[in-house]
Amino acid sequence: MSNTPIIEVQHITKRFKGLTAVKDVSFSIREGAITGMIGPNGAGKSTTFNMICGYYPPTEGKIFFRGQDITDKKAHEYTKMKIARTFQIMKPLKNLSVLENVVASCYFGHAAAKSEREARERAMEILEFTGLFDKRHILSKDMGTPDQKRLEMARALATKPELLFLDENMAGLNPAETEAAIELIRQINRSGVTIFLIEHIMQAVVSLCEEVIVLHHGEKIAEGTPEQVMNDPYVMEVYLGTKGGAAHA
Amino acid sequence: MSEKVKAVRAYRRNVALALGLLLLVFVLIPVFVKSPYILNIFVLVFYMSTLSMAWNLLGGMTGQNSLGHAAYMGLGAYASCLLITKAGANPWLSAIFGMIVVGLVAGVIFYPCFILRGPYFTLVSIAFGEAMRQFIINSTFFGRASGVGLPFGRDSWLDFRFGSKVPYYYVGLAMVLLIYLLMKKIERSRMGYALRTIREDEDAAAAIGINPTKYKIMAVVVSAMVAALVGFFYASYIRYIDPDLMVQAKSTESVLPAVVGGAAYVEGPLVGGLIMIPLSEFLRAKYSALLPGINMLLYAIALLAVIRFRPTGILGWYMHSKTKKFVDEKLLRKPPVEVFEAVELQKHSGKEA
Ligand SMILES: Nc1ncnc2c1ncn2[C@@H]1O[C@H](COP(=O)(O)OP(=O)(O)OP(=O)(O)O)[C@@H](O)[C@H]1O
Ligand SMILES: [Mg+2]
Q1: Domain count, chain B
Q2: How many domains, chain A?
Q3: Which of A44, A83, B16, B200 has the greatest count of CB atoms below 10 A from its CB?
Q4: How far A84 CA sits from the closest chain B CA (Å)?
Q5: Could you report the per-residue pLDDT of B200-233, keeping only the tens digit for each?
Q6: Which residue, among A52, A76, A162, would best test binding to B if mutated, counting the most B CBs under 10 Å from its CB?
Q7: What CA–CA distance (Å, rounded) separates B131 from B141?
Q8: CA distance A76 to chain B (A)
Q9: Each residue's pLDDT tens digit, A82-95
C-alpha cells in the first residue's frame, strides 16, 4: 500500500455568507480503506464532502488527490479521475426508469461505454449487484427512499470509481436492509474501491470503518479507530450524549 | 429461447409494416389530393413539425425552454436567401451555409447563458429574437422591412424552385423524416442521455461526469441548425421573406406542436403538428370571417384544454392508455419486455439465436 494518502485535505474552511459551516479542517483518507465521518446534525459533514467532491470550492484551504491539487476541479471532472459520489438528498433522474438512470452513468467517466449495448449490459450488471434489477423498469420517482438510496449508489458505481463517497447512504433503512447495505459496501471495498462515508448509524460505522473523523460545529474534534473515537470523552459529551454510545445520534 | 426470438422478430415485422403503411399513405397523398389548399396544409405540417422537433431537443429533452426558434429559422432563411440573391449561389449549398451561420451565432450567443444557471436562457432567447428582427428592419443589406424575394423562373430541382406544391410536399416529407431519424439517434446516444440527465438534475449530471455547459451548447447549436434548415425550406417555398418571420408569436407556434403532442417524446412534435396545424388552419378558414381573431381564441382554448387535462401531451396520455395496450398486444403482438431483454442478452453472449 502506498504512503501518499488518496485524499489529503489541508485546512479547509467553508463560509456561507455569515455562517462558517466548516472551520480549518484537515485530514487524510488512506487508499484501500473505509474511512467514516460522523457528527451531529449540522456539524458540517456534507459541506466537507461537497468541497472534496468539487460541488463547491472551499473558502480557504487545499485538497489533494494522490498528491495532485484538485481544489479547483469542477464536479464534472471527478468521474474521469475515478472518483464518484452520492447525494444525501437523493437526486434520482425522476422521469427516467431505474435502468435508464444507470445507463446514463455508464456513458460517462473514465470508463465511458462506447455503445448503447455496452452501456445497457453494464447497467444490468450493476442493477443486479445493488439489488435493483427487479425494479429496473420503474420510474425512479416512483420508488421509496431505500431504493432511491440504492440507486444513488448504483449510479456512482456505474462510473467505475476507485474512490467512492457515500453521504448517509443508509439513512432510512430498517435493520435488515442496513445489514445488507453494510455487506454491499464491504464487498465494494474488497473489490479495491476506497470508501469515504458519512453515516449516523453507529452500527455501520463501527463494523465498517477503520478510521473515523468526528466533526462538531464545523471543527474536527477527534479522529482514530471507532473504539478510540467512541471512548474519547469530548466526543461522548458533545456527540453521543451518554457514556457507551447509543446506537443513534 | 427461439420462441422468444421469433416473437421479437414477428413484432418488429409488424411495427415495420405499420410504419411502412403510414409512410405509403403520406407518399400517395399528392397522387390523390390535387387541391393546392390541402397540399399547402401538409407542407405547413411538415416544416412546422420539423421546427418543433428542433425546439423539442432543447425544451423537451434538455429542459431548456427556448422562445426564440422563429429567430433561428428567420436567420437561416435570411442567410441562405442573401447568399442566393447577392452571390448567386446554389440554393442547396446556401442551405448548408445558413445552417452553419445560425449554428455558430447560437453557440456564441448562448455560451454565456449556459455558464449561469436558471431562466437566463429563456430570457435571452426572447431578447435574441427581437434584437435580430430589429437589426434586420434597420439594415439595408437585409432589405429592411420590405424583405427579400427569391427569383421566380422555370421549375428546377437544381434551383429548388417549382410552380406546383407537389415537389415541396415531398422535400418537406423527406426533411421531417430525416430530422426525426436524427432526433431518434440523438435520443439513444450518449448525447441524448446527457441532455435528459441535465433536464432531470444538473447536479446529478455533473456528479456522473457530464459537463452541463458543453452539452447544452451542443443541443442549442444542433437545434438552431435544424431551425435554419426549416428557414431555408420556408424561403424556397414561399419565395419571399421579411422580418415578420421572426416575431415572438412565431416562436410560440414552434413550441405548440411539441407541447400538445408530448414534449418528453421525440414523436411529440409530429403528433402535435399533425393535429394542431390543420386545426389552426381550419379555424382560420372557417371562423376568422365571422369575427376577426376568434380563430385564435378557439385555438387557445383547444391548447389550454390539452395542457390542462394532459400536461404530458397526447403521447403522455397514449403511453399509459388502454388504447396503447390494445394496439401493442392485439395488433402488433408485442412480447413482454422481459422477452426483449432475454433476446438481447442471448445475442450478446453469442449463442445461437
Ligand atoms: N448551501 C448552503 N448555504 C448556507 N448554509 C448552508 C449550506 N449548506 C449547508 N449550510 C449550513 O451549514 C451547516 C452544516 O451543514 P451540513 O449539511 O454540512 O451538515 P451535516 O453535518 O451534513 O448535517 P446532517 O447530518 O444533518 O446531514 C448547517 O448549519 C447548514 O445549515
Ligand atoms: Mg449531511
Answers
A1: 1
A2: 2
A3: A83
A4: 7
A5: 999 999 999 999 999 999 999 999 999 999 999 9
A6: A76
A7: 16
A8: 4
A9: 999 999 999 999 99
